[in-house]
Design brief:
Elements: H1 2-35, E1 38-52, E2 55-65, E3 71-75, E4 90-96, E5 99-105, H2 108-140
Length: 141
């Protein structure tokens, strides 16, 4: 029975822990990135059409003023169809002072949704493991 429990821990742990670890690491990195970034207001000035083998998608081109008042622009990394933002939309932008052209549109979903999903995917097998071990302990009594 001990070997079976160890086997369960190894199997479920090897499935869940990498996902949980990656999700937590990405959340930590995002929080650090946010602390080291400067936030500014941006304006969507264009939706750049990108065409490829899978179809066409739009990426928002945004202009904003950096901490010195200089106008900077960037194209958002996210692409979608239809466009996420309309031309003229005001968005919150964050960037590091050393790399203002690497700015991004601040969006909770964009920054945290995937890491949270990874954490949940990692927690699921660990939760199942705990339930199985609890049932095995209950049956042994």
């Amino acid at each position: 029975m001990i070997k079976f429990k160890l086997f369960l821990c190894i199997v479920f742990g090897s499935i869940g822990l990498p996902f949980l670890g990656f999700g937590l690491l990405e959340i930590k990195n995002t929080i650090i990135q946010q602390k080291n970034s400067i936030h500014s207001k941006g304006l969507v000035v264009e939706n750049v059409l990108q065409s490829g083998g899978g179809g066409s998608v739009y990426q928002a081109r945004v202009v904003y003023k950096n901490q010195f008042g200089a106008t900077c622009s960037f194209t958002d990394q996210r692409a979608s169809y239809p466009a996420l933002y309309a031309i003229g939309d005001h968005v919150e932008v964050f960037y590091t002072p050393k790399l203002p052209q690497g700015a991004q549109i601040y969006s909770f979903n964009h920054l945290y949704l995937i890491p949270i999903i990874f954490c949940l995917v990692g927690l699921l097998p660990l939760f199942i493991l705990l339930m199985v071990l609890f049932q095995l302990k209950k049956m042994a009594k």
